[in-house]
Amino acid sequence: MKNLKNVSLIACLLFLILFTSCSNDDNDSNGGNTPVIESVMPSGYYEDGTIKSLEPVSIVDPKNYYIIHGKGFLTTKKVYFNDYDTYFRPTFVTDTDIVILVDEKTPYADASNKIKVVTEKGTAEFDITVAPPVPTFNWFNSENAAEGDVVTINGNYFLNPIVKVGTENATVLSSTLTQITFKMPANGNDKYVTVSNISGTTPSSVGVGSALYDDVLQGDTGHWTWSGNEFNTNYTTDKIQGDASMKIVFNGWDGADMKFNSRDVSKYKAFRVRVKSASANTNASLTFVFGGWAYQVKRSLSSVWTYIEIPFSEIGNPTTFDQLTLQESGNFGGNTIYMDDMGFVLK
């Protein structure tokens, strides 16, 4: 990566020399006049080693080099992208061109959408859009939403977002940079939700309709601990997805049962859940029991939220599901365990 950066810097210098030679007709300098920005072009190489085309662009990506082309730049004092004071190397400035790295801290939302070059002779402005990072997609809720339900997406970089469920466009009802609400379209089951901005697209990690728990136990027909301890399915103090999680208080080797309406799971390949141990004991663990004790899968826990996935191949490749049993197995006298975002993984 260091070599690639060095090559990009050298490429920027070569482009600057080339562009300056092409732009200085008969050595006619404009250094004493008001600056003018005519275009912005990418500079350097892509990660695969191919050279970037010197074609004007209207969108720039942070952490990439660009050539600001025009005239009257010799006395440049400041360059701003969306009013963010951007560092430039004086050696990368000629009368007609400035080679500059767009800072990763450049604002992209609620911004001026302009480049500003300030020289001793005046100020030039030029329309440009600074691209946000590709969206991050943390979760959506409710995962089992039906047609017409309002669904919330949590993540980041949701600038002018486009939401799809599978290939179907969804109606966005509201959005901020970190949250979107949209209306679930028809036939959403077994499809992934995607969020796009001008920089790219990010899919959800789970499919619509795959939840066993996301704020509520889906298809719940009964749940309890063997000891009668607390089994709270609406614990709002600590959660990883949505508005609530499950809090289950176990004595040593205590257990809990969850019963569900029977559902077809032939389209899934694994059971999934996010779990957190209240105890920081390194022996903290939980045994997941499937098929009426036919299959017992022990997993270690930690005091931070941890994703657990159990392949169906480890539990007899079930085609239906109606029960889950849990047993505390840390062997240190009991534990309180939090669970959230529980369900299945599509094949």
UniProtKB/TrEMBL annotation:
InterPro entries found in the cross-reference section: Galactose-bd-like_sf (IPR008979), Ig-like_fold (IPR013783), Ig_E-set (IPR014756), IPT_dom (IPR002909)
Domain IPT/TIG: 142-199
This protein's record includes keyword Transmembrane: no
Entry-linked Pfam families: TIG (PF01833)
Signal peptide stretch: 1-24
UniProt entry keywords in alphabetical sequence: Signal
Keyword Manganese: no
Protein origin, superkingdom: Bacteria
Protein name per its UniProtKB record: IPT/TIG domain-containing protein
